[in-house]
Amino acid sequence: SAAAIAEATAAGGFAPFLLDGVTGSGKTEAYLEAAARALRADPTAQVLILLPEIALTQAVIERITARFGVAPAEWHSGVAPPRRRQAWEAVVAGRCNIVVGARSALFLPYANLRLIVVDEEHDGSFKQEEGLVYHGRDLAVARARIEGAAVVLASATPSLETLWNAHQGRYRWLKLAARHGAAVLPEIGLIDLRECPPDPQTWLSAPLREAIGETLARGEQSLLFLNRRGYAPVVLCRSCGHRLTAPDTDSWLVEHRYTGRLVCHLTGFSMPKPKACPSCGAEDSLVPVGPGVERVEEEVRQLFPQARTAVFSSDTVPDGKSARALIQSMADGEIDILVATQAAAKGHNFPRLTLVGVVDADLGLRGGDLRAAERTYQLLAQATGRAGRADRPGRALLQTWTPEHPVLQALAAGDRDAFVEAEMAEREAASLPPHGRLAALILSSENAMAVEKVARDLAEAIPNAERLEVYGPADAPLALVRGRRRKRLLVRADRDVNLQAFLRAWLARVKVPASVRLTVDVDPYSFL
Prior knowledge:
- The chain is α/β, with parallel strands linked by helices.
- It has three domains: 2-176, Rossmann fold (3-Layer(aba) Sandwich), CATH 3.40.50; 187-228 and 290-424, P-loop containing nucleotide triphosphate hydrolases (Rossmann fold), CATH 3.40.50; 436-522, CATH 3.30.70.600.
- Helix content is 31%, strand content 25%.
- Helix 11 (406-413) packs antiparallel against helix 12.
- The longest helix has 15 residues, at 27-41.
- The protein is globular.
């Protein structure tokens, strides 16, 4: 893999690659070797390595420093302005060969950019959603084309768009199918919560509690992962596992506590929360499913008072420095049980971690998010992939109310291809990306009436167009942010439709007052 990338870099000209390897297969090593060969061939070459999280930069910087004998330049929000200025000047003068950074590092004025690496290319945080809206991965490919450079998209769970481009022959597909050295992929098991539900007011089932106890007794580490999003959880029946969906769609309904209603954030449908389950008729069995990290941590401390327990979430780890400190103490074996949200699923290497327990594997499988199944598969595959990365075999246990769901079946079988095939067929049937195109219009204002009026005006002014639909207007899942009311409309178009021309014609028909902010997001990644 490294030889193929280095060869393309030396030859010059635009060369896109997909580096597709299972978790722990040595993708970082492959692209660092490619960078080393590129720099040997041309000492003035510059290499950019993009990472989705500041917390990941430290481990990569240490590896680069050990390998090349000199630290790379860092570029992200955690770098102080004087150091940023130094990095900028070194990049433009060609004195700096390797830059490690967040998506904004794409805009640096490189003197001789020969290779761009987008690590964890599937990650949603490469998408910039405020101000200038862009996707770091797509912009990296565009920048490589402009510079005539090689670009490597690396992931254990590539996005469907990237896999589609690889299938079409647009990207060269390099595969790493086995873990590095003696390490093997973790064994994945599903815990059916309908058969062994947790005790009332608790979240951990008996099989998961036993597994944590066994791991603790062996002196190894456990990670309890919450597939939690920041907004209201999905509603399901504790008796039969039925998930409430909107009529005519499979978009899950989410509970809005302050109104007592169940809302679909795709179509705008809402209804009062029913007393009984519409599927099995059980009364008072409908519950919003979605524990908080604090509740799970509390439960762990009660069950295992002797264990050293820590929490990894955006509340407990607000910045890159504290994230690095926590990751380091986990890697050093100073923590026995880590309760973590999505931040811990990415790229970290903990040698003594042998058990990953996913507390709420269902959460995120639907709910107005068209990439929900793909994102959940990626997230859970990445989270379970943290286990057994050294010489100790690992296992992962996923608690679920719906073990028959294709995403969970594919995870348990370790069959990514089956999942991709099924999801791709579903996307094709609905003409969704990568088989179709999406654009979101997000309206926000401190004046709720003004937002309502603009949303109504937009809905009435939709131009006639074939092979294109507009959904909404609907309340955004985060309907109130920083005192501003939010509404969304979503456009779906076939691939050959000129979406930009349609949006221009549509927006020209509506006068948006200064009090209302309108954001257009072509190819939206989050549906908040």
